[in-house]
Amino acid sequence: MTNVLINAPKTARRGELIELKTLILHPMETGFRPGTNGGIIPRNIIQRFVATWNGTEIFSMDLSPAISANPFVSFFTVATESGRVAFRWSGDEGFLAEESVTIDVV
Amino acid sequence: MTAAKSSLQRRAFLAGVALVSVVAPQAARATPEAMAEAIKAVVGDRPVREGRVTLDLPPLIENGNTVPLSVAVESPMSEADHVKAIHVFNEKNPQPHVFDARLGPRNGRAQVATRIKLGDSQRIVAIAETSRGEFWSASADVIVTLAACLEELT
Amino acid sequence: MTWSDRPGRRPALVLLALVFGASLAAAQVGADTRRSGYQDMGPALQKMQDDDTANPAMLFVQLGEQLWSKPAGAAGKACADCHSVADMKGVAVRYPAIAKGADRPLDLDGRISLCRTANQQAEPFAPESRDLLSLTAFVAHQSRGLPIAPPDDPRLRPFRDHGAEIYRRRQGQLNLSCAICHDDNAGKKLAGVTIPQAHPTGYPIYRLEWQALGSLKRRLRNCLVGIRAEPYGYGSLDYVALEIFLADRARGMLWEAPGVRP
């Protein structure tokens, strides 16, 4: 079940500056909060976000527990060639999510 | 409404204020020193200049759990001169690092937006690292009226 | 945003007169002074709600859309087997409602839960569970932009009156009524937060405090706990009565679901 929202244009002119916006469902549990039984709720965060365009990395981010639950990340890129823009989130407890969109560059 | 009734209501209302402003005790915390150390780990002994970086946070933060933040850096974003990384630090969350983003000339514009947690009023620092080995920075003092991570009392 | 250019302003005013009684006398005649909680938020949070690609609640709308066409229960039927998405437009703005032949009102999540157990013959959703909230958000989203339009059903009246009574009753260790905050002190600051007029325009909402989607019942529970009153159980008719009263009080205001609130 996908739990990611990507906002990217379907088409772009070659050389156009486009914004890519991403949202993903994730608790981003800090590892500092007390739980109901008096213990600390274990940390469970996304540690890394990477975006690639036809396999070439265009942006990455290392996240800390200070990033809000259901992380939102947006950035810009120049549309170079038609193809697949892929997004990958990885983190604690073996978390891995991948999503991609196709952009036609004309 | 009579004067007596209205003052009664005001008192009751203030009781509500007192209740809502109870703040949960905080566990571990970063400090301004921890932030300075974390910054040093990134920039080493090279100088950090103020400027070129715009750090955008709402002036009044209605809830510290989800604070929109954006960092934009003036840069030609060319092969020869571009922003390689944007780092954001904070003083009072348990850890000084908020995020480290890696960019390159393909980004065209050095601008990143996300949302962060802020447990308390504090200073936020954004530092941009360029391909020429320069560091530029901006900082913002934020006021958080309601602490983050306050759970329901239920 | 102004409400004064909306059709249906007059019935709303008549209703307000009933609700606020004397306090309306002080208000400007002809002007609708009602404000959604949206209008009390800063521009950053308004933007978060307005932009579907940035509103975290839209993650749950997307989950709800997936659940909508997933068969469940002994009947092996999906919501989509009995309903079209287009049929869901305008549903959320007339809830809570009493179905034909039924005797108690259901709010939107209650109605969806009933379809889950009676029509899908599946295990009931837990209150505030992610699946229930997501389906509710998906259905509620279809009504975005429509005016809140509670049904003119005389059977709802006793429940609405009960809701109004709860709204004005002082309760909890702080001995406060909803009205003291949301009518008499709306617009003022409480610990840095603007007290809204408590119009249920955006539910289910993504509340930053929860870092999650939640129902109007959960929001009402928060206010009850805030005044140190015993919150009702999730299945309680008292919530539905309050919801009917609040929906009536917000009649004609525009539906924003899924909203973002601090």
Structure description:
The complex is a heterotrimer of chains A (about 110), B (about 150) and C (about 260). By secondary structure, chain A is mainly β. Chain A has strands at about 5, 10, 15-25, 45-55, 55-65, 70-80, 85-90, 95-105. Chain A has one domain: Sandwich (Immunoglobulin-like), CATH 2.60.40. In chain A, about 0% of the residues lie in helices and about 55% in strands. The two termini of chain A are about 30 Å apart. In chain B, strand 8 and strand 9 (about 135-145) form a beta hairpin. Helices cover about 40% and strands about 5% of the residues of chain C. In chain C, the strands form 2 sheets. In chain C, strands 4-3-5 form a 3-stranded mixed beta sheet. A two-stranded antiparallel ribbon of chain C has the order 1-2. The chains are: A mainly beta (about 110), B alpha+beta (about 150), C mainly alpha (about 260). The interface of A and B includes residues 56, 78 and 80 of A. Strand 5 of chain A pairs antiparallel with strand 6 (about 95-100) of chain B.
Primary descriptors:
heterotrimer, A: 106 residues, mainly beta, Immunoglobulin-like, 5-stranded mixed β-sheet, 8 strands, elongated, C: 262 residues, mainly alpha, Cytochrome Bc1 Complex, Chain D, domain 2, 3-stranded mixed β-sheet, 5 strands, 5% strand, globular, disordered N terminus
